[in-house]
Amino acid sequence: MKDDNKKRSFMNTAVRNHDKQFYKIKSDEENKETYTFDEKVLEFLVCPLSKKPLRFDKENNELICDEIGVAYPIVNGIPNLVPQDARTIKSNQPININDPS
Q: What is the per-residue burial (b if ≥16 Cβ within 10 Å, else e) of 8-30?
């Protein structure tokens, strides 16, 4: 019984130390690295709403679906293809995917 408690205690300590070691949260000051979007991945990405190809807008750092007029942001080099986070190109407003119009 004592050996089981020692093992559990060791594992709990190891997990806590693992979390501290590998999952440090950096402040904005510490995390000054910037990432760029790799345009080679465009051949694999499509608009999640229309399933049509996307194009990269370097000026605004967005992926554009010309078919339905939606722009998806790129954050730290990673495309955010969540429809709720996209904006319509013409009105600059977030899109409402639940809107039937």
A: eeeeeeeeeeeeeeeeeeeeeee
Integer Cα distance of 43 and 70 in angstroms: 18
Tell me: the pLDDT tens digits for 34-55? 789 999 999 999 999 999 999 9
Rounded Cα distance, 62 and 47, in Å = 12
Complete domains list, the chain, with CATH: 28-88 (2.20.25.10)
> Which tokens in the block code for residue 87?
């904006």
